[in-house]
Design brief:
This protein has 6 helices and no strands. It is mainly alpha-helical.
């Protein structure tokens, strides 16, 4: 889904470039310290979308060092200047899988917070937020289901181990009982053998040749 978001960003950048006369390729933008204007025609444009596109691209395709640097810069920008743009950029970074700082729960909170504010997001930003929110919600559902299945598997394994232990203990008890019965039978047999031997010895003593 993160790749879908990146593709959507490319489409939006291209569309804005065609409609607004901007070049279709723009350099990655750094996190901005000011929110987009709230008066007049509200459109983010290709240059604004480039900020989000660069963040997603670097977090998806960069190496471990680049991913760490990008997320640290995005988080620092949102902390220093918590504008709508910077906070949305942070939410997108948190929602992107594949890097150590990915946090779907926090991303869900920030995205819901941004979407709940009337007119806080420009139309293109709202589309991005909605797409990422849907992706995050689906991932959280899948993660919860995976955790549930793992717990169920652990319980089943524990139950199987308990059942195996119970069967083993039952077998040991039965074996011990059989050994005891065998020992008792041998003792009775020995007693009978001794009695018969004693009788034969008395009979031989009473009837000497």
């Amino acid at each position: 889904m993160a790749k879908t978001t990146a593709l959507l960003l490319m489409i939006l950048i291209t569309g804005c470039s065609v409609l607004g006369g901007r070049p279709s390729t723009v350099p990655p933008a750094k996190p901005v310290s000011q929110s987009p204007p709230t008066s007049g025609t509200r459109s983010l444009g290709g240059e604004g979308l480039a900020l989000y596109f660069a963040t997603l691209r670097d977090l998806l395709e960069g190496d471990a060092v680049l991913k760490a640097d990008v997320f640290r810069n995005v988080a620092a920008a949102a902390d220093a200047a918590p504008t709508t743009t910077n906070r949305l950029n942070l939410a997108l970074a948190l929602a992107t899988p594949g890097h150590p700082s990915s946090n779907p729960l926090e991303a869900q909170r920030l995205l819901n917070e941004a979407l709940a504010k009337d007119n806080a997001l420009l139309p293109e930003e709202r589309v991005l937020a909605l797409v990422e929110l849907k992706d995050v919600e689906q991932r959280l559902i899948l993660d919860a289901e995976a955790a549930r299945l793992q717990r169920a598997a652990q319980v089943a394994t524990t139950q199987r181990n308990d059942q195996s232990a119970q069967r083993l203990q039952t077998a040991l008890d039965e074996n011990r009982q059989l050994r005891q019965q065998l020992d008792e039978a041998r003792a009775k047999l020995d007693a009978i053998t001794n009695i018969e031997k004693s009788i034969r010895e008395r009979e031989s003593g009473a009837n000497p040749k």
